[in-house]
Design brief:
- The structure is a homodimer.
- By secondary structure, chain A is of the alpha/beta class.
- The first copy, chain A, folds into two domains: 152 residues, Aspartate Aminotransferase, domain 1 (Alpha-Beta Complex), CATH 3.90.1150.10; 222 residues, Aspartate Aminotransferase, domain 2, CATH 3.40.640.
- In chain A, the strands form three sheets. A seven-stranded mixed sheet of chain A has the order 2-8-7-6-5-3-4, with helices on both faces. Chain A has a three-stranded antiparallel sheet with strand order 9-12-11. Chain A has a two-stranded parallel ribbon with strand order 1-10.
- In chain A, helix 8 links the parallel strand 5 and strand 6.
- The longest helix of chain A is centred in the last third of the chain and has 22 residues.
- Chains A and B meet through helix 1, helix 3, helix 5, helix 6 and helix 9 of A and helix 1, helix 3, helix 5, helix 6 and helix 9 of B.
């Protein structure tokens, strides 16, 4: 039986495909420091766990397709605290950020249409685009200038009759790059000029360091028709298993259409929504502590990277990832070698090769993404092993 | 800003669009018996609620994309009890039946391809097909013979170069029809002959009455390449808000591709999976009691319907729906009239007009779906109001 072309085409997770090597190493008793995945180690807030523990509805029933009203209202409150004024009808609760991105793509673009995305980008955008039969047109950004957004002319080279949207991730996964207000305003104007939607993935919106303030595209005026924001509680509250996100737009027609997509799948998980709802009312210190912790981890990883010769990396200002260009040819080969061959006191490190984050073939082969989702003691050990491993690898392979 | 064509095309929920009339009636203090939705009233098993209440992981983390292994293993056990032998790699846990249907459609068919579905069918198949840019080709079934499957020749009239699958819902929503083993074997053979996938939606698999036994397509031999089964815990355990389902196939290549779709959205909700897992080990009496209850409700609704002149309806053998052809022209108009005009002791009834369950324009206009998801006292009152309302409506409109 022949499968559909999209089933054949869809990208295998470039990170998960290396897991067998990790499994083998673990089976041999090797400890692996996982810097390869975006699973935070920070405890999920007790306020959230409490909601599960207190759940006692008689019937675990369907909620509304747009999300529980109590949670929609809390989200209005959440965004308002950040200076973003919304109506509850501007928000549809989704099954994590994944579904929000899928809805955004589908409501903006038809099969065969194009969405322009700065690369490197979150690999799963590929999967959602393949499912929706949409083509992602990559616009390359570079480690040398901290993966800054390219000039308008570069975007305009890609904008054609099939272009429907520009999609940004801010702060960026995998880059950790935080776009400035000026850069974002420039892209917003470009979208207006060319009649494109601007899809902004802001799931790391809190994860911004050095006293910077995150700019949401929802803050821009006169752009309501164009702006679609996607969000998620996964990283924010260390609640990746809750599968709660949202899609936000003040474009009423777009939200009406999105609601029809949402109605088809009935509703997001009920208890998880109640749990996410409790998180909206966490004290501000929760984020103060969180950001302090991640910022010091970022500093640690970045400073350790800077002790290695010939690494190209501008200190990223957000998310919890660093992309480093390494003085080797093939980062995937290095990762596999670390898992299969290299041990320091029977420990090794796993990172994510960046090639899978690029849509342009061949790019990113010498880049790695490091996720700083371990405590600082472990991170310190991991970075030591990483540096020593890289030194050894270059001796053997270089 | 122009939305995508699929955003414009996607069907609005034909049931939810009547909600404003219900909201208005309720605001006026009218009690509505809801026979319009498939939200069971049966309590969610305490064993399931207990899992939420005992959840105390430090970090609510991502699970594997294919589902938690403990739950996959439990599902193997669940199906084995019903004589269906599976390997855990034959099962991917999905975000409810909705996602399972979406994955099944996408892995089987490309944009522009066709899937043949007996109508009336579950309306949300339309939404999933629109999102995936797949065309559903309806094959009409009729109230007069209990919505039995049409002859092979009728299917073969629809099978063409773009046909990729036949999709069945068994027991049927909205029809309540249970397909016999012989009927299913005939369709399976047809799929084999024409190189089609057979997608079987079995979310109501337990809801079979009169001592009949449900036949799963997974029981057929020599069909492993063709068979895709979709399932959900929503109805089975009155756990619609948990959003846990699964897709099952012994076609290894198909499951490998489906896993890539699943990896794109990372994972199903973690706590809900643990809760669903507990349900697999409920004592057999749980279902014995459940089926007794639903069967007696079905008898009640069916017998009440039979006291009304000119109603066409064969007693359905499964799910918790009855479709009745009424001696009126427009069932939607009747439902709206019941909500807006008709009261008996300040109470009325809401049912689901069937037109939205047909893909062929104009069909089902005089049919209603009644969901027997209320206790028998309420059902008895509801059916009395329904009968009296219909009598009155026919006097006025007929």
């Amino acid at each position: 039986m022949k499968l559909s072309q999209r089933a054949l085409d869809i990208q295998a997770s470039p990170i998960r495909k290396l897991m067998p090597h990790a499994v083998k190493a673990k089976a041999n008793g090797v400890k692996i420091y996982h810097l390869n995945i975006g699973q935070p180690d920070i405890p999920t807030p007790q306020e959230m766990i409490d909601v599960y523990q207190k759940f006692d509805d008689k019937v675990l029933a369907y909620g509304p397709s747009q999300g529980l009203e109590v949670y929609q209202k809390s989200l209005v409150h959440y965004y308002e605290k950040q200076g973003i004024k919304l109506d509850i009808s501007d928000i549809i609760v989704t099954i994590a950020g994944s579904e929000a991105v899928t809805f955004a793509m589908m409501v903006a673009a038809n099969e065969g249409d194009e969405i322009i995305v700065p690369e490197p980008f979150y690999t799963n955008y590929n999967g959602f685009a393949t499912m929706a039969s949409i083509t992602l047109k990559p616009i390359t950004t570079y480690a040398e200038n901290g993966f800054a957004l390219p000039a308008d002319e570069e975007f305009e080279k890609l904008i054609g009759p099939k272009s429907r949207a520009i999609m940004l991730c801010n702060p960026g996964n995998p880059t950790g790059t935080v776009y400035s207000r000026a850069e974002l305003e420039r892209i917003a104007k470009l979208c207006k000029k060319h009649n494109l939607f601007l899809i902004s993935d802001e799931v790391y919106r809190e994860f911004v360091y050095d006293g910077l303030k995150h700019t949401s595209v929802l803050e821009f005026e006169g752009m309501d028709e164009h702006i679609i924001m996607v969000d998620s509680v996964s990283k924010r509250y260390s609640a990746c298993g809750a599968r709660i996100g949202c899609i936000v737009s003040r474009n009423k027609e777009l939200m009406a259409a999105t609601l029809k997509f949402a109605q088809a799948r009935l509703c997001p998980p009920t208890v998880d929504q109640l749990a996410a709802n409790a998180c909206v009312y966490l004290p501000d210190e929760f984020f103060d502590d969180l950001i302090d912790e991640y910022q010091s981890r970022r500093d640690l990883v970045y400073n350790e990277l800077m002790t290695i010769d010939d690494v190209v990396c501008i200190k990223p200002e957000g998310a919890f990832y660093i992309v480093a260009k390494l003085p080797i040819e093939n980062a995937e080969d290095f990762v596999i070698w670390m898992l299969n061959e290299y041990r320091l006191d029977n420990e090794t490190v796993m990172a994510a090769p960046c090639e899978g984050f690029y849509a342009t073939p061949g790019l990113g082969r010498n880049e790695l993404r490091l996720a700083y989702i371990l405590n600082k003691d472990d991170l310190k050990k991991a970075m030591h092993i990483f540096r020593e491993g890289l030194k050894e690898y270059r001796k053997i392979k270089g």
